[in-house]
Amino acid sequence: MLKTALVLGATGLVGQQLIAQLCSDSRYKSIVCLVRKPLGYELAFSHDDKLQPIVIDFAALQDYQGYFGVDHVYVCLGSTIKKAGNRKAFRKVDFEYIHVAAQLARAQHVQSFVWISSVGANAQSSLFYLRVKGELENAIFKLSGLEHASAVRPSLLLGNRKEHRLAEKIGGLLAGLLSPLFVGPFAKYKPIQAAEVATKMIQLQVF
Q1: Which residues contact 96 (CB under 8 A, 6 or more apart)?
Q2: C-alpha to C-alpha distance for 173 and 170, rounded to whole angstroms
Q3: How far apart are alpha carbons 176 and 159 in whole angstroms?
Q4: Alpha carbons 191 and 176: distance in angstroms, whole number
Q5: What is residue 51's three-state secondary structure?
Q6: Contact 72, 101 (CB under 8 A)
Q7: Rounded to whole angstroms, how far apart are CA atoms 190 and 179?
Q8: What domains can you pick out in the chain, each with its CATH number?
Q9: Tens of pLDDT, residues 136-154
């Protein structure tokens, strides 16, 4: 039986790759994506046979519960403290929105739920970013009734971003030079292409 999917965060680095892969995946018949603003022309119309973009207010995400009545939910939401403006705004996107999405997915009895966390996520971390990611993992994995919840924990994401992030660009260049050192227990810290993360998310869903 063909599957249906819901994607949150379709316009981000991983989200765009995920949409492209889902739309070309013969196992899916439809993909709904909840977005803050209309999709760009290229993304919206290159896959218009399967893709249904819905512009919503994420601050009122609970009002869109009906869209969670799908087989698979993918959450690619994520920000940075710099982009969000402050820690509170960052936590709203990277914890609250995703946690609400998990609760809505549970209420609709989805088959599986996958979201993007981070390598090093730890609720006890001294680093705010990793602490929030870890707290979210704990909160979602403790949700009774949410079957097959999985977190993808990438390191530095590589790919073509719309916005310019100097630190990530420098990090990507250094990572390329240091890549041979990311072996054994350090392999998880190796930077990864956004397309690979998208592929991993699909592999974690239940078919």
Answers
A1: none
A2: 5
A3: 13
A4: 8
A5: strand
A6: no
A7: 7
A8: 3-161+192-204 (3.40.50.720)
A9: 999 999 999 998 999 999 9
Rounded distance between C-alpha atoms, residue 129 and residue 135, angstroms: 10
Interval 49-61 mean pLDDT: 93
pLDDT digits (tens, 9 = 90+) for 154-191: 998 887 655 555 555 555 555 555 556 555 665 666 88
Residue type at position 186 = F
Mean pLDDT on 63-82: 95
Tell me, rounded to whole angstroms, the distance of Cα 146 from its chain centroid. 17
Q: Measured on CA atoms in the order 170, 16, 145, 107, is the torsion positive or negative?
A: positive
Distance CA 160, CA 193 (A): 10
Alpha helices (H) along the chain: 13-23, 41-45, 81-84, 87-91, 98-107, 128-141, 166-178, 194-204
